[in-house]
Amino acid sequence: MYREFFSQSPVLALPILSLMIFIAVFAGIVVRTMRRRPSTFEGIAALPLEDGKEGSL
Hints:
Number of strands: 0
Radius of gyration: 22 Å
Helix content: 55-70%
């Protein structure tokens, strides 16, 4: 019964389309990140995590 409903439901295409868009964007970001040279990440790695002040918000 549920197979008949889902096979003829046009709304089922929207989640599949959104999944395909997500996969394409995710793969693009991964490829873009992997193509960068490691030297571009060295400046980011040297940033301090804290400014040295305790308790400041």
